[in-house]
Amino acid sequence: MIRLEALTKTYRSAQGDVTAVDExxxxxxxxxxxxxxGPSGCGKTTTLRxxxxxxxxxxxxxxIGGVDTDTMNPVALRRTIGYVIQQIxxxxxxxxxxxxxxxxxxxxxxxxxxxxxxxxxxAMLALDPAQFYxxxxxxxxxxxxxxxxVARALAADPPVLLMDEPFGALDPVNREVIQDxxxxxxxxLRKTVLFVSHDIDEAVxxxxxxxxxxxxxxxxxxxxxxxxxxxxxxxxxxFVGSDRTLKRLRRIRVAEVMTAADGxxxxxxxxxxxSDDLRRVAALFLETAAExxxxxxxxxxxxxxxxxxxxxxxxxxxxxx
Amino acid sequence: xxxxxxxxxxxxxxxxxxxxxISIVSVAVGIAILTGVPLGIAxxxxxxxxxxxxxxxxxxMTIPSIxxxxxxxxxxxxxxxxxxxxxxxxxxxxxxxxxIIRNTYTAIRNVDPALRSAAIGMGMSTAQRLARVEIPxxxxxxxxxxxxxxxxxxxxxAIAAYIGAGGLGTFISRGISQTDIRQLITGALALxxxxxxxxxxxxxxxxxxxxxxxxxxxxxxxxxxxxxx
Lengths: 321, 229
Fold this sequence. Notes:
- The complex is a heterodimer.
- By secondary structure, chain A is of the alpha/beta class.
- Helix content of chain A is 39%, strand content 25%.
- Chain A has helices spanning 44-51, 74-78, 96-100, 102-106, 111-124, 129-132, 142-154, 172-189, 200-206, 224-229, 234-240, 244-249, 254-257, 278-287, 308-320; strands at residues 2-13, 16-28, 33-37, 59-64, 67-68, 81-85, 160-164, 192-197, 209-214, 217-222, 259-260, 292-296, 302-307.
- The chains are: A alpha/beta, B mainly alpha.
- At the A-B interface, helix 2 and helix 4 of A face helix 6, helix 7 and helix 10 of B.
């Protein structure tokens, strides 16, 4: 869906040319979320801004849906790409409703259609349209404002969403909540998302694929579990942290590891659900001496068992591969 | 008491002079807005042009108005307009330029770069960005510049009575030449009131176009809380 080919950006400065982004190539499939991860100054934001041509590449190409974006009018291109930034950038002279309606208005939608769409999006982002539609951005809290920022990016239903550290300015509690909401929305919307972050936990939580940047170069491009299991080099290993095994637990579901079993529930025994991630399993293994835990579905039936050995071999399997 | 009697006796004349005054100031400021605001926006594109334009504007401000009228007389005499309404409007218009250009320039420059980036990223053209985002956000500060220009011009136009432009300055110039304290006070009082009235009405306008910020948000939140209670 989005393909970067040897994308490069070189800035001229008094000290000579500085290469901010150096021949980045990767491909993101439609409906997937790719997190561009790295420390500040690694070129991840510049890469993102080359996709909607806020930054013009020095060389290399960006293809969206197979179309070379060089051949498109930048203004028209940007109207097909949702854009969310850390500073949110809501226009203070417009109400929440008008802010969400900016791109639809540029595209010439009817006032009625814009209003309906804005209200639908507010509701989707857990903001009561009756209460928020006519407010001004100055009257919103940080979390509310960023929800409106996301709604605005989704307004014209663009297939592609670029998010530049969208939740970076929020407090940890709010960030978790809005991340969860976004993940839930993304399950039904299936946008192709490029998401810049410097937070490994956020990346592991949100990404289908992580592109980790090291001073302008792509150090590794892999699904979160593979990156945590097998960092490509020292830099990636140190960036993802020494607790990378613990971080992997979040992305593995009980259903992937459990072995088939059935039978009645022993009410004295603690159980987990197949949809839980391994963090809960690990916590229970640490708290109790149990060698295995029953996996119980919504109706209270045992559908499998998860054992310490199975978890260990799942976590180790990637290493041996 | 004598002055009061003079004022009451000459109300129609005072009204007429006030209208003359307002006419000169509004035409001058009107032209200054039409030229100064676009110029102020245009120079945000280049630091060097901006420095030059603002420098020239500052030089104009240092010329005493009476000297400027003196310079305009021979120039405009070629068109038989050396004295009167036209030189008054031209001089006032020149003095109005700097506050309007400078405030427009500063206001547009101070628009949060994140807003500019968001506007461009969402697919606004330059004209759309200016019209829908940057100018509306800059408007209170632009109006503040217009306020300063209007108040300066009310003063400059008072001097223009000496080149036969009419206006409230007539009372002052006659008061001086005829050593008539009544006319002097009448002119000064009317000018003062006119300046204050203009300043306050533009201040009102300036506040009206400002977008609701945190302060008003707090009051709305309080109102909502009351409604829920």
